[in-house]
Write a structure and sequence with these properties.
By secondary structure, the chain is an alpha+beta fold. It has a single domain, classed as Roll (Thiol Ester Dehydrase, Chain A). It has four helices and five strands, in the order H-E-H-H-E-E-E-E-H. It has a five-stranded antiparallel β-sheet with strand order 1-3-4-5-2. Strand 3 and strand 4 form a beta hairpin. About 25% of the residues are buried.
């Protein structure tokens, strides 16, 4: 466990930092890829102009670029993915995606010992400028050497 907080002024100053907007397109290939992940197959991929399954947003998130985050701890674990939709996503649509570092917090103790929780949010804006969907990802950074399990083993 670190002797002091890793949330320095420099780290806190990164909260609110955003990527430049990037153009992404919800192609049939992106939809098929996410269907493989979430359904285990990509049968009946919706055609261009048809409504896409909501989880296709995960494919857009991987296309939307990412923030260069500080690796303050050696291990990373996905805690959650959250999606909200203002309207259905249509196969073939283009969006402007922008990712922002929404928050960083820390926790002392617990199963993982000292850990940092990092939340990023991405907004997908359609060609009219309206927000179509949002995604959020929460990751935990930790050091397994400082975990409760590691301490119990010694």
């Amino acid at each position: 466990m670190p002797e002091r907080s890793l949330l320095t002024d420099e780290v806190r100053a990164a909260i609110g930092r955003a990527t430049d907007p990037i153009r992404v397109r919800l192609t049939p290939r992106v939809v098929a890829r996410t269907m493989d992940v979430y359904l285990g197959h990509h049968e009946d991929v919706p055609a261009e102009g048809a409504e896409a399954p909501g989880f296709a947003i995960a494919g857009l998130e991987t296309e939307s670029g990412s923030l260069e985050l500080m690796d303050l701890m050696p291990n990373t674990l996905l805690i959650s993915n959250e999606w909200t939709f203002e309207r259905p996503l249509i196969v073939g649509e283009e969006f402007e995606a922008r990712t922002v570092l929404a928050d960083i917090s820390e926790r002392f103790g617990g199963q993982f010992g000292y850990s940092l929780t990092v939340r990023t949010e991405v907004t997908f804006t359609d060609t009219t400028g309206a927000i179509a969907a949002r995604g959020a990802r929460t990751m935990m950074q930790y050091d397994a050497a400082g975990s409760r399990a590691s301490e119990e083993a010694t």
